[in-house]
Amino acid sequence: MPMERIWSYAPGSGRVEGEDLTGCTVVASDGTIGQVDREADHYGLRHLVVDTGVWVFGRSVLVPVGVVESVDPEARKITLACTEAEVKAAPRFRTDSETMDREYLTAVGEYYHGLPPRDTAEA
């Protein structure tokens, strides 16, 4: 996948532009990781901030929308093309200001772009 695609929803993901994803459950390939707190698009680097609740000791994680495998608006569920461990190992999200920090977003994008492709994800 080209690097810039990590910041864009895949064409077949089911994402409807303008639809509010806040509160949707976010599921990795091996389990639920949390709920969408918000969606942001700074510098064209579109991403989700996911509140993990107690899963990662009450912290949030930032996930580029390019790892979204599918969006089910009726079930309010977003499925990611990565594992829980891969999400946990991503560059740590500490403060809201990082959603506007180009250097941090670049590091997150490079991390997710470097993950091994999945059979179900577009390579």
Written overview of the protein:
The structure is a single chain. The protein has two helices and six strands, in the order ββββββαα. It has 123 residues and is an alpha+beta fold. It has one domain (3-113): PRC-barrel domain (SH3 type barrels, Roll), CATH 2.30.30.240. A hairpin with a 2-residue loop joins β2 (31-42) and β3. The radius of gyration is 13 Å and the shape is globular. The mean pLDDT is 90. This is PRC-barrel domain-containing protein. Residues 17-80 form the PRC-barrel domain.
Give a short synopsis of this structure.
It holds the Pfam family PRC. The protein has 123 residues and is an alpha+beta fold.
**CATH-defined topology:** SH3 type barrels
Give the tally of β-strands. 6
Radius of gyration, in angstroms, nearest whole number: 13 Å
Topology as a string of helices (H) and strands (E): EEEEEEHH
**How many domains, as an integer?**
1
The top-level CATH class is Mainly Beta
Structural descriptors:
single chain; 123 residues; alpha+beta; SH3 type barrels; Bac_photo_RC_H_C; PRC-brl_dom; PRC-barrel domain-containing protein; PRC_barrel-like_sf
In terms of topology, how is this protein built?
Elements: E1 25-28, E2 31-42, E3 45-51, E4 60-64, E5 68-72, E6 77-80, H1 84-88, H2 102-113
Parallel strand pairs: 1-6
Antiparallel strand pairs: 1-2, 2-3, 3-4, 5-6
